[in-house]
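Format notes (please read before filing issues)

Several people have asked whether sequences and structure tokens are stored in separate files. They are not. Every record keeps both together, in the order shown below: the sequence lines, then the token lines. Line labels are part of the format and must not be stripped during preprocessing.
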Amino acid sequence: MQWLLLAWLSASAQTRFDYFYLEAEKYRLAEDFTTAAELYQHCLDINPDAAEAMYNLGLIHLYMREDTLGLPLLKRATELAPDNPWYLETLAALYLDQRDTENVIPVLERMAAIQTRRSDILERLATIYHTVGRTADAVATLDRIELLEGKSAQLSIEKADYYMEMEQAEKADAELQALLDEFPHDMNTKVIVGNQYRKAGNLERADSLYQEVQRTEPTNAYLQLALLDYYQSAHDMARFDHLRDSLLYDEGTENTLRVMLMRDYIEKTRRDSTLRPSLERAFDAVLAMPQQNAQILILKAAYQSFVKADELAVDSTLLRILDVDPGSQLALSELLKHYASRNDFAGMEDICRRGVNYRPEELGYPYYLALALIQQDKTQEAIEALEQGLRTKSDEGNGQLVSDMFSILGDLYAKQSEEHSYEKTFAAYDSALVYMDDNASVLNNYAYYLSLRDEQLDRAEEMSYRAIKAEPDNVNYLDTYAWILFMKKDYAAARIYIDKVVPPDATDDTLMTDEQVTGVLLEHAGDIYMLNGLSDVALRYWRLAVQKADESCTPLLHKKLKKKKYVK
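Then the structure lines:
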């Protein structure tokens, strides 16, 4: 009977363990790690050798930066379940992160023993063996990788290096010879082995391999690079320059090799400015040939920027990049920046139209295209550019940029509204506020146009006030707020705010030379002062508004002056 009781108790414990373990998993997945940790600990109270509960509790402690609690739990979990690859991998990653090479080696060895076909584990193990000075073990591990993946230049060269470190030159030579035997007709392999012999000081063997490649495949890129490296290390710059130039100017040279040579040439020139004339001649000669892609041109543009070449010269190179690669983001963005800095609006228009065509996902191009068109008085084209850009935008776009685009579109609609019908303007402003509800420019303009229609003045006042809270010194925003108060017949409050824009003690010369004070601001000041009963000040402001002659005033201004009263 006693054994039946023990079996029942054991079954009962397992049932309780399973229940609490599933509850712990539920809380862990819900990211309630504190509750999950308590439940995993309760599982361990029931079964102290439950590796799964120990492992998950250890992970939670590690997540909560409690390494001193988490690491022993993970280590114990791998002892309880030594063949669980997930536990071992987690423990190995933790040791590697801590650079604990002593403890990670047995873990990696165990992983390699149970996952015999994972070469990535063996690669990591070989590297650590070499790091801690166990070079013979590193070679043996590389042999295991070779059995899995076959012989390769990378593995053979690495083994040869290790043999040389252990002063086993014969084994290093045998390894290189085995590589040559494995790939007897591969010229790249012969060059790689030649480089290895040259590094080891066996120049005769290296030269023999180089000559063999030269006879069989004289244009081999690996060989050319090896020879260049050899001449440079030997300080034989005459032969280096001759070979480099012959490769640069040979139309049969692969573009990848030519790019590498030009990049190296630029680096040398950065260290030695006396090479600049020869480098620039090299660019001219190389770029006179047909270009497979824009890489050499991109290098030239980068070099020109480094030496602070004339901006127009850089632009010429960038335009050539677009001839080869019309959608080059580098060329488009740099040219746009240059043209904008020079206020070259025609140039901006050209680049932005290219950008719209080749990079339609970039909202910046229709945005700047519209700005360039506005500066050229091409209002309808600007509207079309913004409408097209907004039609193709993605929901993941820049919210502020989308808001600004709708804002400009609303402004343009307003300027085209001959009958003062602002439905399209207000719809654009509403869209702008969806993407950025505190866009001060939109809030101001929306409020102003509502006031011109003498409708929704409470809403207009609220929006205008939010705009001046965002930019309290913006004279246009202050003028809008003052005007809305005027429209609401709160003339005293309107005067307080218009005085911030047009100070009463400012001289005529000051007001006339202040570019921020436009004719319509002066007209508004006159209207406000007239309805505050200060007609002399009002007439002064109206006269100054006429003198501004900036075409911003209303058609009623002359009538107000003639009648010497406010005319609605």
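For reference, the curators noted about this record: The first helix runs from residue 2 to 29. Residues 502-568 form one domain.
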